[in-house]
Specification:
By secondary structure, this protein is an alpha/beta fold. The chain has ten helices and nine strands.
């Protein structure tokens, strides 16, 4: 049985297109294959959406997860779903706050692992975010993002409709509707992660996934899953 088939409320709260096989394959690659490092970890889930991945890391053995999400309706969904499935209140918290504001705090809580899942192509503040993520003391950053095809370290800039729940938020509250975002290349990710003292690696989806239904962007390389581990002296 697919993981989220057991917790079908997340199919109702997603706010994005319902693609059960995509949910399953992302769960396998991002969560299940990293159970060993998630076990007992304190996890920060940036742009936590409806809490699906926060929930999954707790089920994988994490000791605590903090979700940060700017859209109040999504935070409300997460706060209703977790008690529904019997998750102890002491194991999680969800903050309705812009991720940039949260990470810019003078003092940040300390975490073992930070999740940047489905978020890093909905911002133009990539380096600022990573520099602040480093301040959490995390030993591992898991990034799942769309990526530009360029071989050079570039970020391709575009616009997104902030009124769409799947897209970037207008962190300036400008009311403009369309907000600038950037699609980083793999080399741009590598360069920025190296700057903050993290080694960069990509999980090979083609070597691990047989059914790419609803996951064509991973097959083509337009999206990827990356593990960044803090370098030790």
């Amino acid at each position: 049985m697919r993981f989220f088939d057991q917790y079908r409320r997340f199919y109702e709260t997603t706010g994005t297109l319902l693609k059960p096989n995509r949910f399953q394959q992302r769960w396998r690659i991002i969560i299940d294959e990293n159970k060993a490092v998630l076990r007992g970890a304190r996890v920060l889930d940036i742009a936590s959406h409806d809490g699906r991945w926060s929930f999954a890391v707790l089920k994988a053995g994490a000791s605590y997860v903090e979700g940060v999400e700017a859209r109040p309706e999504l935070v409300a969904r997460a706060r209703h779903t977790f008690p529904y499935y019997g998750i102890a209140q002491s194991a999680y918290s969800f903050l309705c706050q812009d991720a940039l504001q949260y990470l810019a705090a003078s003092r940040l809580p300390q975490f073992d692992i930070v999740l940047l899942l489905g978020f890093f192509y909905h911002t133009l503040k990539h380096l600022e975010i990573l520099e602040n993520v480093e301040r959490t003391g995390a030993r591992l950053i898991i990034i799942d993002t769309g990526v530009a095809a360029d071989e050079e370290p570039v970020i391709r800039v575009g616009l997104e409709d902030a009124n769409d729940i799947r897209n970037a938020v207008d962190h300036r509250s400008s009311g403009a509707g369309m907000v600038p975002v950037g699609l980083p290349s793999r080399e741009a990710l590598r360069l920025m992660l190296d700057w903050i003292g993290f080694d960069f690696g990509e999980i090979d989806w083609r070597d691990r996934v047989a059914d790419f239904t609803e996951c064509e962007d991973y097959y083509s390389g337009a999206r990827g899953t990356f593990l960044a581990a803090r370098r030790t002296l």
